[in-house]
Write a structure and sequence with these properties.
Elements: H1 5-9, H2 14-27, H3 37-64, H4 72-107, H5 117-150, H6 156-196, H7 224-231, H8 237-244, E1 252-256, H9 264-278, E2 285-290, H10 299-308, E3 313-318, H11 325-331, H12 333-353, E4 361-367, H13 369-375, H14 380-383, E5 390-394, H15 401-408, E6 427-430, E7 447-451, H16 457-460, H17 491-499, H18 515-526, H19 533-550
Parallel strand pairs: 1-3, 2-3, 2-4, 4-5, 5-7, 6-7
Helix pairs in contact: 2-3, 2-4, 2-17, 3-5, 3-17, 4-5, 5-6, 9-12, 10-18, 12-13
Length: about 550
Amino acid sequence: MPLSLKRLVEPPSTPGLLLGTLFFAFSLAPSLVPRPLLLQGMVSGVSLTLGYAGGVAGRWLWGYLELPLPEPRTDRLIKLVATGVCVAVAAWFLWQAGEWQNGLRVLMGMEEETGIRPFSVGIFTLLVFGALLLLARIVEQTAVVLSRRLQESIPRRISNALGVALALSLFWTLTEGVVLSAGLTLADRSYQSLDALIGDDLEPPVAPLRSGSAASLVPWEDLGRQGRSFVTSGPTAEDISTFLGESAMEPIRVYVGLNAAGDPESRAQLAMEELHRVGAFQRSVLLLVTPTGTGWVDPPAILPMEYLNRGDIATVAAQYSYLSSPLALLAEAAYGAETARALFLEVYRHWASLPPGDRPALYLHGVSLGALNSSLSFDLQDILADPFQGVLWSGPPFRTETWSRATRDRDPDSPAWLPRYREGRVVRFMNQDGGLDEFDTPWGPLRIAYLQHASDPITFFSVDSFFREPEWMEEPRGPDVSPDLRWYPVVTGLQLAADMLVGGAPPGFGHTFAVEHYLEAWVALTEPEGWSEEEVARLRAFLVKLEEGLVEREED
């Protein structure tokens, strides 16, 4: 029995449109970061579809329970009034949407947008809604066809249930096995090609203290795109000396690309050989960085440490993927943690074998997915007898267990967006306004610091936000969260999920971290010798200027 074309093109449900219109209106309200036009249209289209589905389901349940329906005349009046209210609400939200988005942009120091945004958002919304509605009706008609075929041999109610289950299973298989698989394959090939690409403007480093140089054990071609960028950037000894007005050392940068060895253990061993080659364990500081999914190391995170330590520092990182962080988390979630742990164990075991007075201060760092994998690289029980100095994790994803535990068990008088945990003896949090030094109790020998923004959806998204208001929305709110932000069931969760795809926030907001905040974090965490407040302020101004002119950020 063929699909019913009439059913595919029949007018939409009135109750569905009424509830869907409200969901559409709520989706236009501001969330954590400004949304581009296309993404706003997609969020609004999905919200309209979800509301529509809820209205259709409610109408079906009402009829299934055989509840009384109003008289036709009363029913028409109710629909007319409800339609007028919904249209008025949607029109007001649509008119305010541009102002709300510009309010967020002003809050984050961005230029305001102009143009026909309300009209464009409405068009994109209808296109998304129409496509999803058509897909839902195809699934429905498939279920009808299957159930009618099954009724020839089994009871009607059972065949209806099986028809729905088989239709959903069929489309899920097609989506996951064909569409999603093809998408991941295409993304994998694209990112792999991009990772292998060597820019015409890049040459292998001349300094032997950098991976990829002629003296390195890691070939230039095997560093990957982000690794080549990492080892060819950053200050030289001359740059640091010029700023300080005194002699400085050449910073060490070690990087092992994904193609340099076949598995995490082999890459970790190669990294250790490279660290021994360059004399990294003879430096005063050793910084172990876990990169993001593509292998990216955030430049503003490393620059302050190289200047604060007058070049007397070695930084090491190992690539575990060339996919963007969301895709890496989807396709190979465990691989990043395995690589981070393999490298940590190699480094820590050798570091712990050295006499305390003859080994460098050891710190860990990671941003975004790198922070998550870095937190999984060691077990506190294994290092308590001989702890390393500390970690700085910026923008930890909401799935990070150590972050979640500290936030959940925070002191009652501290907000969720800037927790205070057990008097700050081990774990401390900061944002763009500071926070690491605001404790009366001393920081212990192992120091864990989180740098986060209240406007970061990757940190503050949660599945619970679909059904209840998150704690970080309570007053007082973070300094970078819009006062117009409101919680709406289902819609707010969808908005936050979409916000995680947005990478356009300026430094100091959202999921982008500014060099001056990294500097403040490293100063509090490491307490470098020989730096007065005036000298730190001069370095801050210098690094901010350097970041504005030279640092290229990744949209990961």
